[in-house]
Specification:
- It contains four helices and three strands.
- The chain has about 80 residues and is of the alpha+beta class.
- It has a three-stranded antiparallel sheet.
- α3 runs antiparallel to α4 (about 60-80).
- The chain is globular.
Length: about 80
């Protein structure tokens, strides 16, 4: 499976949210933090974006989404 790291503009498009709402979601634990892809560049793995968008579409509660964020970020650390 090929994974892609999405830059902010692509993440916002997939989520249908603006920049301020996106960063508020990260702060509230409702979205994963971006990963470093260079000295001044950050991005988010596409599979994580898709998982969170799908959870939202499925009507998951904020607590369920927070739990998913924790799991996704733990899985990320397990890869390294």
């Amino acid at each position: 499976m090929t994974r892609t790291i999405l830059r902010l503009r692509a993440v916002l498009t997939r989520r249908g949210k603006g920049r301020s709402s996106h960063y508020a979601d990260i702060k509230a634990g409702l979205f994963v933090t971006p990963v470093s892809i260079g000295p001044r560049a950050r991005g988010t793995p596409d599979n994580e974006v898709d998982a969170l968008v799908n959870a939202s579409i499925a009507g998951k509660t904020e607590d369920e989404i927070r739990a998913l964020v924790v799991k996704l970020e733990a899985d990320r650390k397990a890869l390294g």
